[in-house]
Amino acid sequence: MSGNVVTRLPFPVAARRELGDEQLRRNLRKATHTIRDKRLRVVGEVPDWEPLRVAGAAIKDDVLARLPDLLEQFEAAATAAGATVHWARDAEEACAVVAALVQATGTAEVVKVKSMATQEIGLNEALEAVGIHAVETDLAELIVQLAEDTPSHILVPAIHYNRTQIRDIFASKMADVDATTLTDDPPALAEAARRHLRSRFLSTKVGISGANFAIASTGTLAVVESEGNGRMCLTLPETLISVVGIEKLLPTFADLEVFLQLLPRSSTGERMNPYTSLWTGVTPGDGPQTVHIVLVDNGRTDTLADPVGRQALRCIRCSACLNVCPVYERVGGHAYGSVYPGPIGAILSPQMSGEGANRTLPYASTLCGACFDACPVRIDIPQVLVHLRQSGVDAARGRPSAERTAMRTMSYVMRDRRRYAAALRAARRGAAPLRMVAGRRGALRRLPWPLSAWTSVRDAPLPPKQTFREWWAREHSS
Amino acid sequence: MSTRPDARAEVLRRVRAAQPTAPVRVPRDYAADDGPAGVELVDLLVDRLEDYKAAVRRCTADALPAVVGEYLAGAESLVAPAGVPETWLSSFEGPVARDSGALTVADLDAPGVAVLTGCAVAIAQTGTLILDAGPDQGRRLLTLVPDHHVCVVRVDQIVERLPAALRRLADPTRPLTMISGPSATSDIELNRVEGVHGPRRLEVVIVS
User: Fold this and answer.
1) Local confidence pLDDT in tens for the 208 residues of chain B
2) Phi, psi for residue A221 in degrees, rounded to 5
3) Given this structure, which CATH class describes domain B37-184+193-207?
4) Do the domain assignments include residue A241?
5) Between chains, do B133 and A283 touch, taking CB under 8 Å as contact?
6) What is the maximum span of chain A, computed from C-alpha positions, in angstroms?
7) What Pfam families does the record point to (chain B) (predicted)?
């Protein structure tokens, strides 16, 4: 079992469904454009942004090259500081470890800090199955949980809702809110969330988190957040369980000087997020006195084994690539099926799991490259997308393929100038009767099978009335 | 609890089988050191704190008690870690609870409770206060549960950039909290809104 990183529907099918929702597209456009502008402004304030990106990428590559040693170093340091370190091969094992730890405390409810790792392994569902209710405390996660929906963005899981929709969810699902007076004013909605969660923060015995960074030399974990729900979950419970992907390591504390500059500006477009918490094992008299850390593989080592694709493991989950992606902006996160949507999801999900329809995800891109420009750790997402598409084609070699036959024919025609010119002439003659159908757009919306596969997602342009070569020859003939 | 030696061995085996072999050199061509210190640093910190909706006052050491007193004027009671100097809170007329580890969450959650602390270091460029649980900062929950936090920053605690701030910390394994403005969220249409779970009033006094 790989958890929630497998899409059941092929991307084109899911995308078509999502594209039909005009409200969704308006909400996404507004939110992604807001954050894009903010990110550009605060990144522009940093004169050494590019050296920081280069350093961030190299530090992560260094971690991947020394991962076994750094994992053992982290385990030893965290253990010495009073934490208990657990290991999990996959999502199922990680969930079982956490469930057993929670059951041992005898509690039936836990508070959760927003965490991609726990979303990835499907922890809430696994806990629910053994009678433990997990309360999401991040505002966007709370919205998604109350709506019984799934996240659609790495940073803001409820990005697909606007303020009025959020107001309606709160009014119908929060028992402690007065539906007649609640407005859709964002501060009023934040206040409603504060009141809804406050007593839970102050009384719940077990907190569950992920970690943005894990420091190998000291055994320290870091959580970067905004609302203070993270601090509540990390500070007030008696027991803290943190689920951490094995790629989250940084060699030393000093390496945070790079990532704490890159992450906030890339994710929320702030110079610094309101709260960052760092803790090392157990501190007597301050915070949880029982601390567990679960190190999770779940497909990361499969990703690590690919020399081109392993750069995806540099990802610090900032979501800048989602916010600049023309495809994500139109289809939203649900179209990708996995908890990792957008450009990074299109390369991460299929590498973490080859199940379901994940092999359709590398095609969910125009290869425009905006994601690479925005990535704070210089993941060359277009390069990996092309690499994964190529791997998919290679895997299918030996089987008949209409596309490959077409490409072979094209190659034969284009290798010779006369053959090419003759083919163009033939195409133009063939297209002449279609010009009426194509109208002023000069393109056909649908072609008959098997070319309908091409026009299912794009128009087929008709050949121009004359080529550049013909125009040139006529202009210069006299 | 079981530490599942089979899982540990298997994950490490997989990592060893998959890991790249070439060593990586990390170029650190970014600005790791601060520029020269000066008054501009204080101006920058004030600007950045106010930009993220914290209130800021600058004063001399002599005027500090009065300024702190003004910020605490509406508070019904005050909590202070054991290491906060008596002079800082000398203008506050309400009840003061010094935390020796005995204050409960319910004490701190009572209406009208304010907390007064110092900090370990402040970053001008990002408007960030770092608390490292030192004697004048105390346990983490002190600056979390009360709705009103007043923080005193000495001018010599201000650095320009994050790298210098991290190097100033005495012991990075102490519990650390980095605070940049009051509690906020960007979860509604990706616009920043102040005031969720942490203290909604953050006030900073910079003492020269």
Assistant:
1) 445 669 999 999 999 999 887 899 999 999 988 887 666 999 999 999 999 999 999 999 999 999 999 999 999 999 999 999 999 999 999 999 999 899 999 999 999 999 999 999 999 999 999 999 999 999 999 999 999 999 999 999 999 999 999 999 999 999 999 999 999 998 888 778 888 999 999 999 999 9
2) -115, 150
3) alpha beta
4) yes
5) yes
6) 94
7) LUD_dom
